Amino acid sequence: MELLTKYLNQDDQWLGYVWNQDQGQKIVIVVDDSFKLVEYDSPPNAHGYGLKVVFDKLSHFDDILAIGFFDLPQSPAIQDIKLIVDTIKDWVTKLQYQNCKLYLLVDYYHGQQTMQSEAHGLRFVDYWQEYQPLIAEKIAHLSVGGVGEDLPNPYNLERFQKTLIQEHKQDYKQLPEAFLAWLDIDEHPLCRLWRYSDRWFFSDEPTILVKHNFAEVRKFLFERKDDTSVYQAKEYKRKIANALQINIPHTWWENEVSAHNLHESLKCLTGAFFCGQTKNSAKRNLSVGSAYIVALMAHQKIYGNANIFMDDPEVWIVCSHANSPIFPLQDQETARNSAIALYDLFTCLFTLRNKNQGSSSGKSLVRSVCFYEAGRILKIQLNWNAQNPPLDSPNSLAQIINTTFKEPTINMAIGAKNTRTTILNLWCQMAISESGFMGPGVVYMEADTLVIASIK
Question: Where are the alpha helices (DSSP H) in 96-175?
Fold first, then answer.
């Protein structure tokens, strides 16, 4: 294996496979007597299921510092448990990183017997809890049986099933949500959307419900009423709602024009035609309609609802040109960064607050949302004005931006530090084009209204 390396203890016993990178804070350790099967994409038995999947998926996250797979103690005897614990401790110490967070996954049984006398993993956890050789952020069990294990769970640990994780081995799938949540991996809503929509709109994928040609979709949404079509329509709606993490109004799907326009706007943010999702000959980047979807997602994340964006049942009916572009074609990484920059802008503008306040009041700062010119223009009216300074500052947003662009040097920041840096990030992203510079759209704020518009 190119990435994982064998780990030998001081007596040259092969007790693990390890990997690390030069960034991140989290160390994930799997204690399993089938640890050597981490080499196999398709392990020879179920006891090796999920191991390589865990490595393949987690090693792509920037906040994962290291991953180790170590043997389960050969017996419940203290000397056997201590052998593995000392090996793990030795490896973690050699990493020489401060303030790490350790996540420990422990199998139940040694060997293929499922008798409680062979549940060496329980004794291992007992030892770890009593002696605390390293401070673990979290401990869980990873086994073939998962939550169905008929064994005591004295520490009320999470229990994950190897076979379920193995089902996520395909490149376009990510680890189960519950597993990522246990690892405290806070995935950006757009990254999650791209993960869920990775195979959408491919014309040569007969099993994909979110199809490229809406004429195929309309057959099960509007034309046919047999059991298969009813099921396909339900699944199509569920998959999109799940990817967006939004309870999409039924009214948006009941009208064929509305459903079609929403379908086409999704193509400018996800799937086979979004240049940020694929490296093939994708021909779309963010549009006015997809900006609406991004704003909706940001509002949902902030306030726990997107009601102000979904109150109008006919909002998508009048948007025949909502797929009009606001960004030029960009390479995959740039297009994703552009979408995230736009999301960050919405987040900052929707949560504007005084410096002395710990958080926003909980009441939405969005007053109204409306499309104009058949979807070529989107206007979002806010409950505050860019011309008026907040209570705790002498300068308005307009004055801050005015001053910033008059400075001889503009200091850029990575990520959304505040509204000012978010605006600068978006400005830079909109300037990047594969065919020249700048693009066919504009994003600006005038008084209390944010405007996203396209000239195409």
Answer: 120-131, 162-166
